């Protein structure tokens, strides 16, 4: 019992090293960059709404909802960038699994973009010039 009471006093003490938020951020941080990936966004969430939701956690550098190139609609995810990793860690802790525009959002560390594979083009099919092509399994077909 004495150990439990001492441990509780150590953890709950106001001058305790463990109760300091800066201790947690510096020594238990999982982030390696100040950029966060936000998923589960509503189709109605805009860059401005995302910025407003994350602005209270520190100096926000950028907040961007990713949209489809053709339709301009939200793809349901975005990125938030802070000036420091500590600010990003606070935002991740506070906003993960919270509601934004009626949807539950998830905040994770952003990963670097993976390089895209080059498109493999299909070789041109042989044609006899009459509109017919050769099908190797059946013979001639339209």
Brief overview, please?
With 142 residues, this protein is an alpha+beta fold.
Explain what the structure shows.
- By secondary structure, the chain is of the alpha+beta class.
- Strands 2-3-1-5-4 form a five-stranded antiparallel beta sheet, with helices on one face. Strands 6-7 form a two-stranded antiparallel sheet.
- The N terminus is likely disordered.
- Strand 6 and strand 7 form a beta hairpin.
- The chain is elongated, with a radius of gyration of 26 Å.
- It is built from four helices and seven strands, in the order ααβαββαββββ.
- 15% of the residues are buried.
Query: How many helices?
Result: 4
Overall 3D geometry? elongated
Low-confidence stretches: 1-11, 14-27
How many E strands?
Answer: 7
Largest beta sheet: strand ordering: 2-3-1-5-4
Percentage of residues in helical conformation: 25-40%
> In sequence order, what are the helices and strands, one letter per element?
HHEHEEHEEEE
Radius of gyration: 26 Å
- Give the mean pLDDT: 79
- Going by helix content, strand content and strand pairing, the class is alpha+beta
Q: How much β-strand is present in the residues? A: 25-35%
